[in-house]
Write a structure and sequence with these properties.
156 residues; alpha/beta; five-stranded mixed sheet
């Protein structure tokens, strides 16, 4: 499998979340060539402001691998991880973050984002995580368009 196929899994999962009334975010964690976890945002469904796609995927990956050390894992995220999610990737020792849309794109839709880029956090915290930006950006931005058409959408 390729980076594109893993990102498309995250995009597909985000689409499932949108169809379920959730925000337009998905994340897929891979180790080697194997998908470990693929989740979408469930903040509204779970009444849990921390239930971002990346956090849900990290929790699932830790349970599946029976460890809190996700060294060697790559997370594919449909949007640049927020500071909370970036911190969880850092603390979980995820090796690489690949994301599509940017925090500023989510902020434009009304999401209450802290406009602190992953690169700024990586540099400030001396984190070793590798970051790949704007991967399949247009396809990931398409999720925002899909979500915008929903009648009962909520931002937080």
């Amino acid at each position: 499998m390729t980076d594109e196929s893993f990102m498309r899994r995250a995009i597909e999962k985000a689409g499932c979340g949108i169809n379920d009334g959730q925000a337009p975010f998905g994340a897929c964690i891979v180790k080697g060539e194997k998908v470990i976890a693929c989740e979408h945002n469930t903040v509204c469904k779970d009444t849990d402001i921390t239930a971002h796609a990346e956090i849900n995927a990290i929790r699932a990956a830790c349970r599946k691998l029976d460890t809190i050390d996700l060294s060697g894992c790559i997370i594919y995220s449909t949007c640049e991880p927020c500071p909370m999610c970036f911190s969880a990737c850092h603390w979980g020792k995820i090796s690489k973050i690949v994301y599509g849309a940017r925090i500023d794109d989510a902020k434009k839709l009304g999401f209450c984002e802290l406009a602190i880029s992953d690169e700024t956090m990586r540099q400030s915290g001396n984190s070793k995580v590798e970051i790949v930006r704007d991967f399949l950006r247009e396809e990931n931005l398409g999720l925002f368009g899909m979500w915008s058409k929903q009648k009962d959408k909520r931002v937080y």
